[in-house]
């Protein structure tokens, strides 16, 4: 009987010791978790500062990207304007070089009736020149070229160049009475002034 009581007591002591050990383990584990939590909480200001720093960096890069995009757009527009201006100058130069040829064609067409009076055999050549002149006129019109109106108008130094003045009865002074050489506009720009004779 004594042995049984002694055995029960020993079992109770072992259970109690095991319980104490388990309690101590839980206590240690809880204090470790609390320490980890405290450590993580203490890092919040550091992480917030890092986030703010990264946000600032993002804003800086964004502003720089927008600035570069605006600079590129301006550069593109400048180059586009320069390209258009260069094309316009080239066209203007080409038309100026062709104007003497147009003048010659006009003179031939103007004198055609006299040539036809001399010989009827000239008609195919006259027709060919008239066709060529019409083709030139159409090409010039497509490019935006127009003749400056002269005869019967008042002299305007922006469009006309007076090469001579003559007495013309019943005509107001500075009225254009004859066109010596046609003038031309490209759009609203003067390619060549009309050379004219005006009344005194």
Structure keywords:
200 residues; alpha+beta; 3-stranded antiparallel beta sheet; 3-stranded mixed beta sheet; 68% helix; 14% strand; rod-shaped
Question: What would you note in describing this structure?
Answer:
The structure is a single chain. By secondary structure, this protein is of the alpha+beta class. 68% of the residues lie in helices and 14% in strands. It has a domain at 144-200: Head domain of nucleotide exchange factor GrpE (Nucleotide Exchange Factor Grpe, Chain A, domain 2), CATH 2.30.22.10. The protein has 4 helices and 6 strands, in the order ααααββββββ. The strands form 2 sheets. A 3-stranded antiparallel beta sheet has the order 1-4-5. A 3-stranded mixed beta sheet has the order 2-6-3, with no helix packed on it. Strand 4 (184-186) and strand 5 (189-192) form a beta hairpin. Helix 2 (44-110) packs antiparallel against helix 4 (123-142). The protein is rod-shaped, with a radius of gyration of 51 Å. The protein starts with a helix and ends with a strand. The model is unreliable at 1-5 and 17-26 (pLDDT under 50).
Instruction: Please tell me how large the radius of gyration is.
Output: 51 Å
Q: In which range does the helix fraction lie?
A: 55-70%
Number of helices: 4
Secondary structural class:
alpha+beta
> Which CATH-level-2 architecture of the domain at 144-200?
Roll
Portion of residues in beta strands equals 5-15%
Full CATH superfamily name of the domain at 144-200: Head domain of nucleotide exchange factor GrpE
Q: How would you classify the quaternary structure?
A: single chain
Q: The CATH topology of the domain at 144-200 is what? A: Nucleotide Exchange Factor Grpe, Chain A, domain 2
Cross-sheet strand order for the largest sheet: 1-4-5
The biggest beta sheet reads: 3 strands, antiparallel
- Indicate the low-confidence ranges by residue numbers: 1-5, 17-26
Distance between the termini: 160 Å
The secondary-structure element order is HHHHEEEEEE
Average pLDDT figure: 82
Please give the number of β-strands.
Answer: 6
CATH class of the domain at 144-200: Mainly Beta
The geometry reads as rod-shaped
